[in-house]
């Protein structure tokens, strides 16, 4: 209890009101991005019926004049419309992956506040054009829809590299795992926000669902432009210390109070304080290929490609799996699938806290990934029981979504602020874009492999889960060299501490003899 209260006092002393606002603004910025994505997922059934002709009969009368309906339909039946909707998903993911590599570089070369705000506003406009304007002006064209989805993927890619980089600028490595583990729940919260907004207006027409979510995203971009502070240097606060976290023997930078907390420099100066000036010059941005060659970037990028494939396959296919495997209603399947996100949120927070305590990320991530293997197998064997299925789903989400949240947020921030480049270059946004971009490439591949295994090859769902187990194992294999290095580092540090304690013990035993002599 005392340690918890001391930790709370340290957090209050270490973080200011700026940290709170940065946390909330970046959190809801990416949540609003995900809300617009969830809109398209939730209205697929409705939009499919809008794009196909309606045949009138006694039980299902025409809702609109048949001549108008038949003149503007895109597909002959819903079975023809559904593949096109799937291709739109793949188009978005591929353009999103390409955009992440570009947006990461832009974030380190320009003001991240402006890049993020511009991306949010322009993405909101594209979503509005796709969902509302085309319906209002009766423009129904497959090439136009594909072009709009490519643009939306490129624009939405500005979100993740910028928000992770801004959070990395404000929160140091000592608490970054816990803070960003909780913060990475923004995607799940965005899915919930999108589902709630869509459910309220979908009865008026699918175009109003896009109108509401795009308006919220546009408003968020305007707020960020005027309120978001990308770096603590802009308000006179010190940057978080990342390089000294592993060195317990380093000299403290200032005097500590009775609680062991180093006081923060006051924002308001007194008359006796010397004037302080704050420079706004940005360090030179690191190149894309230099960022790729940074230690740890390639292993974590490849591992995230494998893991995001599994994570996004659950995101896109879990409700369909529950409906086809157990015959549950779509509304019930949607409600049950939320437990996967809940498990991922809890896993990200607990995994982040444990990695903060260990001051190493790889041991925590690899341990969770190895435990994910039996959890996936256990979930594939779940009986037709909603309670048991929800519990096993949450466990799988804990061990899969948790490491995924850590790699995409806390670990990406660590890689972009490592000692090798700290102080003379900008790399955080670029590194985040590389890691998440490579992960999105893997996710796009997964959306092709899963239906290929289940529908084209007519294999049982168990084979899909075997594929997930294999990709999760490959995720751990990619991180294995980093795990060995960090375990050796921990072992060397432990031996060093033991030798220091032994030397101190010997010195204490000899000190009385020297005094007597």
UniProtKB/TrEMBL annotation:
GO molecular function: transmembrane transporter activity
Keyword field contains Transmembrane: yes
Chain segments annotated as transmembrane: 15-33, 84-103, 115-138, 144-166, 178-202, 208-229, 292-318, 338-355, 362-381, 387-407, 427-449, 461-484
Disordered: annotated span: 237-274
Location of this chain's protein in the cell: Membrane
Comp. bias regions, Acidic residues: 239-259
Annotated ranges, domain Major facilitator superfamily (MFS) profile: 15-487
Key words of the record: Membrane, Sugar transport, Transmembrane, Transmembrane helix, Transport
GO CC annotation: endoplasmic reticulum membrane
Record InterPro entries: MFS, MFS_dom, MFS_trans_sf, Sugar_P_transporter
Membrane topology: Multi-pass membrane protein
Pfam families: MFS_1
Superkingdom, taxonomy of origin: Eukaryota
Major localization class: membrane
Family: Belongs to the major facilitator superfamily. Organophosphate:Pi antiporter (OPA) (TC 2.A.1.4) family.
Protein name, entry field: Sugar phosphate exchanger 3
């Amino acid at each position: 209890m005392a340690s918890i209260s001391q930790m709370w006092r340290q957090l209050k002393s270490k973080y200011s009101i700026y940290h709170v606002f940065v946390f909330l603004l970046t959190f809801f910025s990416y949540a609003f991005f995900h809300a617009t994505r969830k809109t398209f997922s939730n209205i697929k059934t409705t939009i499919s019926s809008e794009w196909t002709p309606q045949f009138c009969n006694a039980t299902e009368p025409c809702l609109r004049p048949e001549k108008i309906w038949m003149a503007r339909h895109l597909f002959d039946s819903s079975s023809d419309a559904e593949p096109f909707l799937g291709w739109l998903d793949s188009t978005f993911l591929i353009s999103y992956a390409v955009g992440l590599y570009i947006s990461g570089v832009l974030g380190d070369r320009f003001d991240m506040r402006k890049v993020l705000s511009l991306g949010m506003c322009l993405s909101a406009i594209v979503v509005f054009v796709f969902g509302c304007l085309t319906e209002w002006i009766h423009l129904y064209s497959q090439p136009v829809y594909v072009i709009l989805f490519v643009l939306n993927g490129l624009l939405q890619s500005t979100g993740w590299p910028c928000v992770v980089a801004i959070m990395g600028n404000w929160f140091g490595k000592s608490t970054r795992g816990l803070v960003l583990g909780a913060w990475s729940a923004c995607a799940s919260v965005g899915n919930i926000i999108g589902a709630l907004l869509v459910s309220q207006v979908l009865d008026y027409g699918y175009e109003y669902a896009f109108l509401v979510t795009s308006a919220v995203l546009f408003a968020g971009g305007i707020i960020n432009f005027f309120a978001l502070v990308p770096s603590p240097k802009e308000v006179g606060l010190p940057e978080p210390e990342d390089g000294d976290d592993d060195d317990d023997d380093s000299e403290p930078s200032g005097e500590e109070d009775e609680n062991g907390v180093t006081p923060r420099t006051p924002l308001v100066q007194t008359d006796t304080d010397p004037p302080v000036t704050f420079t706004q010059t940005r360090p030179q941005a690191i190149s894309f290929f230099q960022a790729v060659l940074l230690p740890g970037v390639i292993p974590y990028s490849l591992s995230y490609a494998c893991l995001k494939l599994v994570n996004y396959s659950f995101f896109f296919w879990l409700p369909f799996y529950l409906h086809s495997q157990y015959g549950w209603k779509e509304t019930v399947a949607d409600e049950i699938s939320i437990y996967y996100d809940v498990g991922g949120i809890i896993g990200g927070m607990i995994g982040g806290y444990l990695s903060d305590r260990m001051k190493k990320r790889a041991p925590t991530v690899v341990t969770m990934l190895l435990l994910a293997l039996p959890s996936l197998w256990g979930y594939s064997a779940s009986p037709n029981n909603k309670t048991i299925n929800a519990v096993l789903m949450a466990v799988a989400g804990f061990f899969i979504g948790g490491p995924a949240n850590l790699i995409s947020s806390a670990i990406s921030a660590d890689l972009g602020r490592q000692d090798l480049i700290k102080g003379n270059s900008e790399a955080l946004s670029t590194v985040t874009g590389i890691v998440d971009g490579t992960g999105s490439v893997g996710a796009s591949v997964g959306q092709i492999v899963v239906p290929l295994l289940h529908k084209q090859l007519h294999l049982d769902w168990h084979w899909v889960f075997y594929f997930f187990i294999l990709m999760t194992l490959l995720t751990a294999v990619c991180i294995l060299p980093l795990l060995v290095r960090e375990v050796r580092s921990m072992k060397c540090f432990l031996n060093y501490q033991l030798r220091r304690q032994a030397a101190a013990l010997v010195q204490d035993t000899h000190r009385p003899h020297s005094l007597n002599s």
